């Protein structure tokens, strides 16, 4: 599927779009720090096979459009962290809201909307749960959520968090804070995955764990079906 172009208040950016064979809900897929790479496109393609319109926007477009790198070399990691450090989260949320509306208005899309993100995208999912009108949200190993817990009262739609217990980027202390603070939140469901590292669901990634990825994927599938109709 070719990329599409989305307009914003300060420019245009591309997004990868995967479409199902019939009408269906939409899922906004939010990238990791490696850009809209093969892994993100694979996630979109798999969601399309499940009957969803899946859109993954390029959030690094203001720094460098079209980033597609992997986790396989030190050079790529260094580049990814540079992009991450230069990323404006607030502008990213604006881009995601624009992308959500683009997706909602596509021919064939029912208008029911979810967000799903990984790593940096997992953090942005949390912010979209707080600030957007998406019908449900799924965060995989989101980074920095412990610093955003004061915004939790703004979450009014079903939100699922997948947390890797051995996450090298989310400390045990941060995980405990997230679990304790959100344990009684009526809209938040948390699943913790013992023995797995950050990015356990990254296809062909260095920390990919098939059992955990499959379990999280099934939980996500059921969650999406229950909340998107």
Annotation keywords:
single chain, Rossmann fold, eight-stranded mixed beta sheet, 6 helices
Q: What's the short story on this structure?
A:
This protein is an alpha/beta fold and 229 residues long.
Major beta sheet summary: 8 strands, mixed
Q: Structural class of the secondary structure composition?
A: alpha/beta
Number of helices: 6
The first-level CATH class is given as Alpha Beta
CATH superfamily: Alpha/Beta hydrolase fold, catalytic domain
Number of strands: 8
User: How would you describe the shape?
Assistant: globular
What does this structure look like?
- The mean pLDDT is 96.
- The protein has 229 residues and is of the alpha/beta class.
- The chain has 6 helices and 8 strands; from the N terminus they run E-E-E-H-E-H-H-E-H-E-E-H-E-H.
- An 8-stranded mixed β-sheet has the order 1-2-4-3-5-6-7-8, with helices on both faces.
- The protein has helices at residues 38-49, 74-85, 89-104, 120-131, 172-182, 210-228; strands at 3-8, 11-18, 24-30, 53-57, 109-118, 136-140, 159-164, 188-193.
- It is 36% helix and 23% strand.
- It is globular.
- It has one domain (3-228): Alpha/Beta hydrolase fold, catalytic domain (Rossmann fold, 3-Layer(aba) Sandwich), CATH 3.40.50.
